[in-house]
Amino acid sequence: MSEALRNDRFLRALRREPVDMTPIWIMRQAGRYLPEYRDTRQRAGDFLSLCKNPDLACEVTLQPLERFDLDAAILFSDILTIPDAMGLGLRFAAGEGPYFERPVRTAADIQALTPPDVETELGYVLEAVRVIRAALAGRVPLIGFSGSPWTLATYMVEGGGSREFSRIKAMMYDAPELVERLVDVLAESVSRYLAGQIRAGAQAVMIFDTWGGVLTPRAYRRFSLEPMARIVRELAASPETAQTPVILFTKGGGSWLEAIADTGCAAVGLDWTVDLREARRRVGDRVALQGNMDPAVLYAAPERIRAEVDELLAQYGPGTGHVFNLGHGIHQSIDPEHVRVLVDAVHELSRPYHQAD
User: Fold this and answer.
1) Nearest CA to 40 among 67, 62, 25?
2) Closest alpha carbon to 320 in 28, 23, 8, 117
3) Does 1 have pLDDT greater than 60?
4) Would you give the distance in Å from CA 254 to the centre of its chain?
5) CATH class for the domain made up of 9-354
6) pLDDT digits (tens, 9 = 90+) for 58-117
């Protein structure tokens, strides 16, 4: 797949190369806030069926690009595909989110885990990447992704979402070697999974560390950051994947920006609790930065959305290396027209910051 990209400013910004305006894409840009997505999901029958149908996954991936002038597409899938492929029995309960029928709770459970075969057990994801990449036909780059090893581990041990993370943290303190074994298997799995997505056509990949921010600094480095750094190293070591930029995003990870940047990733994703100006000062020119508007801004009036965009662009300042995004996923009750205001404002208001590029 070597078609020329008609819009490559997202990839150029990740490489900190000159751009004409700040690129923007939105976490969960293909999702429930769009009525056309809700229609497709209903047609699929349920969320997992939608994820596992490459043609429908392609359809919903492209839906936001038909509405908005976005600078990248992101594969429509779920972060829990790897543990599902490990046989844990992923299910989605209405109004309650994901859960596993067979959570990982014992040493024997963890010792039995092996990385899934990406080409077979996760082949539907790779096929979706191929279908989407062909459908994009060079329009914008395609982002692949995975959950981080720590985040996947939390769901696997807790059995689903959690507020206290009591099971995984008890295991972490009582039997840290078990959690280390679990995140090691998951790091290998994520590395193979992202490499498979890149071979299938993903032009950048992102690791979502949704729950790294619940850890102490010492535990974060051991159980979250080091497994992600290992993935970055393994992707960088292969000629097939070395040129593909990797974005690391730890929600609540503002205290560890320098350490995240030191992994060798291309970009660090920021949530809305981090000052963008300060973040740029702290990481210097080592990495690009992605983020970091509070998703709740999109509930506000259009003029307030534009004002917040203006403020964030001013915080980052002149020059390349910034990918505009929300600080987390878009809320499902957002008015799509407010997303249009956001995207257009980023492109319009960022141009002066790139005149010298």
Assistant:
1) 62
2) 23
3) no
4) 16
5) alpha beta
6) 999 999 999 999 999 999 999 999 999 999 999 887 766 899 999 999 999 999 999 999
pLDDT at 35 over 90: yes
Q: Could you give the count of Cα atoms lying within 13 Å of 205 in the half-sphere of its Cβ? A: 31
- Give whole-number Cα distances, 125 to 52, 53, 107, 147, 207, in Å: 7, 9, 30, 14, 16
Q: Domain-by-domain residue ranges, the chain?
A: 9-354
End-to-end CA distance of the chain: 29
How far apart, in whole angstroms, are the C-alpha atoms of residue 205 and residue 244? 7
Kindly give the pairing relationship between strand 204-209 and strand 246-250: parallel
Cα–Cα distance for residue pair 345/305, rounded to 1 Å: 8
Q: Look-up: residue for tokens 């293909």?
A: 30
pLDDT tens readout for residues 125-142: 999 999 999 999 999 999
The tokens for 290 are 């992605």
Residue 324 and residue 322: Cα distance in Å, rounded?
6
Q: Which pLDDT score is estimated for 357?
A: 64
Bridge partners of residue 291, in order along the sequence: 324
Give the Cα-Cα-Cα angle 131, 80, 27 (nearest 5 degrees): 65
Q: Which residues of 333-349 are buried (b: 16+ CB within 10 A; e: fewer)?
A: ebeeebbebbbbbbbeb
Helix (H, G, I), strand (E, B) or coil at 293: strand
pLDDT of residue 92: 86
Torsion of CA 343, 349, 350, 356, to 10 degrees: 150
Catalytic center residues: 28, 32, 41, 78, 155
DSSP 351: G
